[in-house]
Amino acid sequence: MTAITGGPDPMRCEPLFRPKSVAVVGVSATTALSWGRIALERLLRGGYRGEVFAVSRGPLELPGVRTVGSLAEIGYGPDLVVLVTPAETVPALVRQARELGSGAVVVFAAGFAEGGNTALEDELREAAGDLPVLGPNCLGVVSHPAGVQLSTTIFLDRERVPPGPIAIVTQSGAMGFVLADLLEQAGIGYSYYASVGNEACLSSNEIGRYLLDQPDVEVLVLYLEGVRDADGLRALGRQAREAGKTVVALAVGSSAAGRQAALSHTAAVAGDHFLLATLCRQEGIHLVTDDDQLVDAVLCARKGTTLPPAPRLAVLTMSGGAGGILADNLTALGVRIPPLSDATRAKLAEVGGVEAADENPVDLGGNIDRWMGRVGDLLGALDEDPELDGVVLYLTFGDRFPEAYHRLAAAAAEMRTPTWFVWACAPPGELAKVGRPDTVLPSIGALVRRLRVLVPDRVPEAVQRLGADNRPVWTELRAIPLLESAGIRHVDTVAGIDLAEAARGWPEPYVVKGDAADVPHRARAGLVRVGVNSAELPAVLDTLRARLDEVSTDPDRTLVVQPLLPHTEELALGATRDPLYGTAIVLGAGGDRAEDPTAPRRALLLPATPAQRAELAAWAGDVLAAPVPAVAAAIDGLIQILGDHPEFAEADLNPLCVTGDDLVAVDALFTAQEASRD
C-alpha cells in the first residue's frame, strides 16, 4: 500500500498494543475493587504472557506479578505503563515513565480539559514529550492477539465470540464497548480496542493508522465526538481504500445538544456535520447515525456491498401488501422501484410461479407452496438484469420447509447483484441457523435501516449560510463577468435607467430585481418581482426603485431586468470556506428548496480528483435530473473562480436553471472574507 506521510510515525503505537512488559501504577493492596486492582486482574485473566509489575504501597500476592514501590524500582522502563492514579499525580508519573525509556502510557484519570482543567492537561502533554500517551479520561486498551486487556469495564468479564477482523477506536470508552457488544451479537468479533479520551497526545487518526496497518484488521470502527484534524481523517480514509479495507464512523454532533454533550465529555469541538458527511463519502468512510446502523455498515463493508445513487431495486414477494410497504419505504429512501424490462419479464414467465404481478414489485401470490422450487430461478432471472442495482426477496413463516428457505438464503448471498432476503416471522432460531446477517433480515424495518447505510444522501444538517455583516459582497451584476469568464452561462441581463426600453426585445414576462451590495438577500427585502409583463414594467420599476432607496445605501445600487427563463429543474451550486474542513463545493436542489434541510444536496471538499468531481456531476444527473456534462462544467467553473479569488468566503449560484442540455444561472452572489476592522 501507499504510505501515508506526515505526522508522527504510527508504529510508535506498537508498545500500546503489543507490549513485552506492563506496569500498572496505583494498585491497591487492600481494596479488591479498586480500578488498579481490577485492571491488573483483567490483564492476567486475558492471557497476557509478558512481564507484569504492580506499583503499590503495600504487598500483593498475585501469581506472575512483581510488586514494587515505584516505577524506578523496576530498573528499566516497561513497554507499557498504566496509570490508575489521581489526576494531579499524572504529569509527574508520565515524565518519570518517559525518562525511564517506557514505550507508551495509558491514563485512566479524568479531571483534565473535559472538566475545564486545561492547565493540567497542558502539563501532562509537556511531560510526555514524544512519548505516546493514551488518554487521559479514557477506558483503556484491548489487544486480543497480544492477550492485552487493560480496562475497568465489566464487559471484558463476559464470554465473547472469537476475535475477528475489527478494530475499534473510540472517543467515548463506554460507547466503544457497546459497539463491540453489538458487533459480537451479530457474530463479528473484534481484535483491538482503544479509548482515546481527551486525545492529549495520541489521536484517533494516529491510532487508526496503526491499526489499519495490521494484517488481521479489515474494518476500522470509529466513534467520534468531534473532529480536530480533518486532513488526518481524510488520510485515514485514503489509507483504508488503498489497502482494500474500510472505515466506519459513528459521529455525534449533528445537533446543538449533541455538540454540547461531546464538549463536556471529552473536550472535543465538533465541526459542521454536513461537511463531515462530505469528507466521509468523498474518502470512502461510511458515516452512520446510530449504533445499530454501525453494525449494518460493518456487515456491508465485510461483504463489499455498495449501491449507486438513486439505485434501482427489484422486489420479489409472496405478499402484495408487503410489496407495497417495501415500495413506499424504499422510495422514501431515494431508491427507485422501476418497471422490469420486457426481457426480464419474459424470463420470469419462462420460469413460472408469478401468479399476481410481474412488473415491480413482483408478486408470487398466495400459492407459493406450489412454486417454492422455482423461487431460486426467479432470483436468477433478476440477477441477470443489467438494469437492476439490487434485489429484495420477501417471504414469511417457512415453518413447513425451512430447508428451502435456507437454500434461498444461500442463493441470495451468492448473487452478483446485491440481494437481501427478508424472512419475516421466521420460526424461532432459524435466522441464527442461517448465520447470514449480511443477507438475511427479519423485517422490512431492518432492511430499511441496512439500505440507509448504502443510500446515505439525506444529510441531517445543511451548511450554515454566512452572514453578510462586515463581509464585502459581489452582487449578481458584478458577478456576471466572473461566471462568463469561467464558462458558466448567465441569463441575459440589463441594468441602467431606461430598463423598460432595453427589455423590449425579449419575450414576456420579465424578472425585475434590485442589485445592491448591502442587501444580499433581496427577495426578503421585497426587491424581486417575477412574471412582470411589458405593460406592468414601468410601474414595477418605479416601485422597486423606491424600495431599493429605502433599504440600501450602496452608491452603486441599481435595478436589473431579465427575461423569465423557461426551464425544467432548478439547482443550487455554491461554496463555503470552513476553517476545519477547507473549501467545499455544495450542490443540491435549487430555488426555494435550497432552504429546505431535507432537500437532496451533496458537497465536494477541495482539492478533489477528476473522478470525485465526475461522481458529483453524475449524482446530480441521477438525483436532480440535471444534464451531467453541464453540471460538471459548472463545478469546474466555480472551482476556477474560487482559485482565482481566494478572498471569496462564500459563493451562491441559485438557481441554476436546467434548459435542455444546458445550465443557466439566473442569480449569483459572492461574499468575500470579513473586512478588516482596523
Automatic annotation (TrEMBL):
Record keyword Coiled coil present: no
Gene Ontology molecular function terms on file: ligase activity
Matches recorded under SMART domains: CoA_binding
Positions of the CoA-binding domain: 16-112
Keywords: Ligase
Protein's recorded name: Acetate--CoA ligase family protein
